[in-house]
Specification:
319 residues; alpha+beta; Rossmann fold; D-amino Acid Aminotransferase, Chain A, domain 1; 3 domains; 5-stranded antiparallel β-sheet; 4-stranded parallel β-sheet; globular
Length: 319
Amino acid sequence: MTVLVLTGPKDATADLVIAELTGRGVPVHRLDPGDFPESLTLAARIGPRRSAWGGGLRGSHRDLDLGQVRSVYYRRPSEHRFHPDMSGHDAQWAAAEARAGLGGLLATLECTWLNHPRRNAVAGVKPVALATAARCGLSIPETLITNDPDKARAFVGNLPGRVAAYKALGTQGPSGADGEPYALWTTQVRAAQITDAVRLTAHQFQEWIPKAYEIRLTVVAGRMFAAQIHTSSQTARIDIRTDYDSHTYELCEVPCGIASGVRQLLDCFGLHYAAMDFLVDQSGEWHLIDLNPNGQWAFVPELRTPIAQALADLLEGNP
């Protein structure tokens, strides 16, 4: 039985888990769904006397029997790549068929997923995550989602300090001139800065919480790994992703009330893994600002080995 790791060709984070599993003698098959169909061949069958798909995948160097998968680590698979002579419309159709075919077959694997992409998709919707977190007893910032500029101005004008955090609802920003999406960082915004362009789509505005520091909390099968994030950069105080070099980290404990709410939250979504961001205010209260069911975890040096070991435990079947 093998652990299937679904990720792109350059994923140093997945490499840490693969090295841990390999060191334990656990068979691992690393596969990038983006290789299908150019360098990956699929053949699977099901019929009246079968309860599961039989068959597998044939790659350039190794084959995978779907019946021999013990667990799946779903990391960062690439988009499907097609022959350059295929037209744009044909490629779009082929991509949809590839996702339904290969993705659908993999989704039928009845084993431990970390996490199943279907569960990631639901938990990754910010309005759903915030509402669920609130029901689980976790503190969240006052939040408005709107395309009404007047409502947005009124909301921001009535907040403490009359300033809000403007944050994208999706995982990436719009595309630039080269067609590639660019990051849309969290920004501070005041009512006077809100224009009528808000009408063009949905926007998220959140209460600005003056923080003492941030917390990155990584959860693996109920085990919690938390680190305070302190920064000397003004831009990173607004959005920590803008300046990782300015960070210092300090491992910390998770308060019992927060731990209970977090476990309940992950249970609601059926997640084995999540990376969560909290703001801790001057009084020490934790406020959840983001739930990422497939978030990065290796950037805190002191937590790399413990988290890699915890992930390997779960994938090996020893949580």
